């Protein structure tokens, strides 16, 4: 499904209605923030690279490094550009040695066909997570972010995401367990996660 089709918009409206009916706290958040604007990004390789760059960094720090990386590569990262650039130049933009290796391994995996985004898109969530986490540098959080922002999956909740946990505690109380409070949000937990992130940013 294309990210911008009426079908996608219809599904998001269904998700909003479900969340509002299932959870009065979420209903108030929806009323404050308005319609969900969650859309899968256009280029899955760039999306996965972005998640790797952002691992264990603040949003601001990750954005700074992404901008430097794009300046170095002459645009968003591509497999050919990453595979051809010197590792020292990648580290010079602020990437750790480990992230440099991960990005170049990811580029090589797509170039040699080990990483097939079309095949990933056809897999159910659990199988896609397993396939992604087999890649160097792709842990559970990175894989979950890719399912949400790369594949547009609607029912993913990243229990290890610090921002989601913090937002949930702000809304539901300091003793809140994200896994418990998120149960009524299924099958639209990705949409609920988007609202939690928006609430935190706001």
TrEMBL record:
One of the entry's Gene Ontology molecular-function terms is: alkylated DNA binding
CDD domains attached to this UniProt entry: ENDO3c (cd00056)
Q: Which reaction does it catalyse?
A: Hydrolysis of alkylated DNA, releasing 3-methyladenine, 3-methylguanine, 7-methylguanine and 7-methyladenine
The alphabetized list of GO BP terms reads: base-excision repair, AP site formation; DNA alkylation repair
Q: Any idea where the HhH-GPD domain is?
A: 53-201
Provide GO CC annotations from the record.
cytoplasm; protein-DNA complex
What name does UniProt use for this protein?
DNA-3-methyladenine glycosylase II
Taxonomic lineage: Bacteria, Pseudomonadati, Pseudomonadota, Gammaproteobacteria, Chromatiales
Alphabetized UniProt keyword annotations: DNA damage, DNA repair
């Amino acid at each position: 499904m294309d990210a911008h089709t009426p079908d996608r918009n219809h599904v998001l409206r269904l998700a909003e209605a479900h969340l509002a009916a299932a959870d009065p706290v979420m209903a108030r958040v929806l009323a404050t923030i308005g319609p969900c604007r969650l859309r899968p990004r256009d280029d899955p390789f760039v999306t996965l690279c972005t998640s790797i760059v952002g691992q264990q960094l603040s949003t601001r720090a990750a954005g700074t490094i992404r901008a430097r990386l794009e300046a170095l590569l002459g645009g968003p990262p591509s497999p050919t550009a990453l595979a051809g650039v010197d590792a020292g130049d990648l580290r010079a933009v602020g990437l750790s040695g480990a992230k440099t290796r991960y990005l170049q391994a990811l580029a090589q995996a797509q170039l040699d066909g080990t990483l097939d985004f079309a095949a990933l898109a056809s897999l159910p969530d659990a199988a896609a997570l397993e396939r992604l986490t087999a890649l160097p540098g792709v842990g559970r959080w990175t894989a979950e972010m890719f399912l949400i922002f790369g594949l547009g999956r609607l029912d993913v909740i990243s229990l290890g995401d610090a921002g989601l946990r913090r937002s949930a505690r702000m809304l539901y109380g300091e003793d809140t367990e994200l896994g418990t409070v998120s149960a009524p949000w299924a099958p639209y937990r990705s949409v609920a996660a988007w609202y939690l992130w928006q609430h935190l940013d706001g």
